[in-house]
Amino acid sequence: MAGGSSPCIFCQIASSSTSTTLLHNDEKVVAFQDINPSAFRHYLVIPKQHIPTVRNLQRRADDYSLVSHMLNVGQMLLNRDAPQTVYRFGFHQPPMNSVNHLHLHCLALPFIPR
């Protein structure tokens, strides 16, 4: 849970405390659809452990393993749901992140015009 008085919404999703449909759930991460999609398929993969942003990651084996696992889960979901499509993956960095919980955006193009 994030600091302060209000719980982190992504921590709530990771602990299955919301009605969010999980596309993937394992010991390290969960994945679900972005509520404001920017592409044909737009999924978020988040760690179950609260990590505020990419800036909180360190150059250590555990963090490399986590990010690699997040990417593998995102690729697996997009390969399953949008085969033969162009994919994009990325993290936002502060101050551009909308939720202070590490999350990987997994997008299957085309982008959705705003």
UniProtKB/TrEMBL annotation:
Chain ranges of the HIT domain: 9-114
Top-level taxon in the UniProt lineage: Eukaryota
Any one GO molecular function term: adenylylsulfatase activity
Lipid metabolism is among the record's keywords: no
Gene3D superfamilies from the UniProt entry: HIT-like
Active site: H105
Swiss-Prot/TrEMBL keywords: Hydrolase, Nucleotide-binding
SUPFAM superfamilies: HIT-like (SSF54197)
Residues spanned by motif Histidine triad motif: 101-105
Protein name: HIT domain-containing protein
